[in-house]
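[job 4471] stage=fold_predict status=RUNNING
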Amino acid sequence: MNRILLLTMTALLTACGPAKPTDTVDELMANPARIKEIQRLCKEDHSKVGDELCLRAAAAAERRFFGDRPEQKKTQ
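[job 4471] inference complete, writing C-alpha cells
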C-alpha cells in the first residue's frame, strides 16, 4: 500500500514540472509575429522563457532572414 502511494505521489510531482516549449523552428518560421514575441520575452526575462525557446526563435529568425538555402561551396 505504501509503495503504491509513493509511486502515485512521485508520478504526480513529476507531472508538475515546467512545460517544454512546443514551438519548433519550422512552426516559428511560418509565424514571424510569434518570433518577435518570443524575442521580446527573451530580452525582458530570459530565465523565465528559457534557453531552448530563445535559441529556437533565434534560429527561426536567422533562417527567415537568410532563407533556407544550402551552403555554397567556394571554388578556387
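[job 4471] summary: Residues 21-67 form one domain.
[job 4471] exit 0
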